[in-house]
Amino acid sequence: MASDQKNSCSGLFDCTLCGDCCKGFGGTYLTKADIDTISRYIGVTTKEFISEYTSPSGSKRLIAQGENRYCIFWDKVCTIHPVKPRMCRQWPFIPSILVDVGNWWAMAASCPGMNQDAPEKEIVDCVKKIMTP
Ligand code: SF4
Ligand code: SF4
User: Fold this and answer.
1) What average pLDDT does this structure show over 94-117?
2) What is the pLDDT of residue 24?
3) Where are the domains of the chain?
4) 72 lines ligand 1 (CB under 6 A)
């Protein structure tokens, strides 16, 4: 879920575009707005999008993965970058950091763009700032 938070809190996070987060762990959840926007962008109906590009996870939908375990929209870069899901746009400034700031360092272990030495207060302040509409 290569992120585009380069201009916000850049001392904490600077995406290297390595694509590691677009592979395997966790999965990428889609909101209804994500489904509508991405369907339009790639020129399919929402029904086709759901059936061909997503997989179920309880009552929610995840972006499907290819055989290489990468997100189906990964091809050296994110091929839906302008409309990528909210979850990808927000990363790594996500609500679970506010539940437990330790999640920042856990995530940073597999995301080279995240500052592993960041002070706790700066992380929490930044997550709050970015999550505020
Ligand atoms: S939508 Fe793009 S940024 Fe998000 S996981 Fe897929 S390839 Fe990565
Ligand atoms: S793992 Fe981190 S640095 Fe690599 S693309 Fe994803 S967000 Fe960017």
Assistant:
1) 92
2) 73
3) 20-131
4) no
| SS3 label, residue 29 | strand
Indicate which atom in ligand 2 lies nearest the CA of residue 112.
3
What tokens were used for 86?
Answer: 């909210």
115 or 10, higher pLDDT? 115
Q: Do residues 72 and 30 make contact, with C-beta atoms less than 8 angstroms apart?
A: no
Q: Hey, what are 115's tokens?
A: 């500052």
Give the atom of ligand 1 at the shortest distance from the alpha carbon of 19: 8
Residue 77: beta bridge partners?
A: 75
Measured between alpha carbons, how far is residue 95 from residues 113, 128, 129 in Å?
18, 9, 12
**Cα distances (angstroms) measured from residue 4 to each of 67, 92, 101:** 26, 10, 21
Residue labelled with tokens 């879920």:
1
- Residue in 27, 25, 12, 24 with CA at minimum distance from that of residue 87: 27
Is the pLDDT reported for residue 47 higher than 80?
yes
pLDDT at 120 over 70: yes
pLDDT at residue 51, rounded to an integer? 97
Averaged pLDDT, 70-83: 94
